Amino acid sequence: MGKKKTITKNQDDLIKESEAVEATAAAKSAQSTRQRLDAGKIYIHTSFNNTMITVTDLKGGVVAWMSAGSLGFSGPKKATPFAASKVAEAIAEKVKRSGPTNVEIVLRGIGKGRDSAMRTLAAKGFNITAVRDCTPIPHNGPRPKKRRRV
What we know:
This protein has 3 helices and 5 strands; from the N terminus they run H-E-E-E-H-E-H-E. The protein is an alpha/beta fold. Strands 3-2-1-4-5 form a 5-stranded mixed sheet, covered by helices on one side. Helix 3 links the parallel strand 4 and strand 5. Helix 2 (about 80-95) runs parallel beside helix 3 (about 115-125).
């Protein structure tokens, strides 16, 4: 059928390949030894349909996030206080090693899970320094939609 081609590597190719392997190993070790954050912010967004929690550093870089839908809750169960507490537990486990310990909580929305998520985060060992409510409130902006007639 024909001769099989064999590739022979010379010494220079072997050196380049070993340097590439060492560089990727160094990059992986740099990722695993992330610096521990002392302070950060936790954003809790609760709507009538879902609960989302985001952990950031003080500059606003996202460290971790989680929602009730990502935990497997579906439909109207996503907006319950039980789902919000489960999301808070999961996010606490996710940032246990590298995440912040002193946190400022920023609440947004008018869903049912606001208080239960905040209580769960306090119970999981976060030192809460401040709580802010940043729920958007209209200041008589555009005209609202017509009332629905059934």
